[in-house]
Amino acid sequence: QVQLVESGGGLVQAGGSLRLSCAASGRSFSGTPMGWFRQAPGNERECLLTITWSGRSTYYTDSVKGRFTISRDNAKNTVYLQMNSLKSEDTGVYYCVAGTISSTTADYWGQGTQVTVSS
């Protein structure tokens, strides 16, 4: 079965950094995008970043541009999210996604990992 497992979430002070990882299994997702969604408290889930299989094309939503970086290691079937200069409004559940990704959904979802940014 297809499985995406996020790790690296936790509690961090505003201005700090976290690195999230997402390990995929069940399929390689070769040739398909991967990315990260976030659902903040009281808000609808939103697509934050995506990356193509080659890594040559990336998408960043305005709220994370310049602070978050997405990358992937295809040999490990893993995608990463480096989060710097974290803000309180970055608090939420972060979901790893894969497959066909739109602004609101994706083919495959991880269970999510909680990120809490305290001020």
Summarize the structure.
This protein is mostly beta strands and 119 residues long. It has strands at 3-7, 10-13, 18-25, 34-39, 46-51, 58-60, 68-73, 78-83, 92-101, 106-109, 113-118. Strand 5 and strand 6 (58-60) form a beta hairpin.
Task: Report on this structure.
- With 119 residues, the chain is an all-beta fold.
- It is 0% helix and 54% strand.
- Strands 2, 4, 5, 6, 9, 10 and 11 form a seven-stranded mixed sheet that branches. It has a four-stranded antiparallel sheet with strand order 1-3-8-7, with no helix packed on it.
- The chain is globular and about 40 Å long.
- The N and C termini lie far apart (40 Å).
Number of strands: 11
**Total of DSSP H or I helical runs spanning 4+ residues:** 0
Largest beta-sheet details? 7 strands, mixed
- C-alpha-based Rg, rounded: 13 Å
Mean pLDDT: 95
List its traits.
mainly beta, 119 residues, 11 strands, seven-stranded mixed beta sheet, four-stranded antiparallel beta sheet
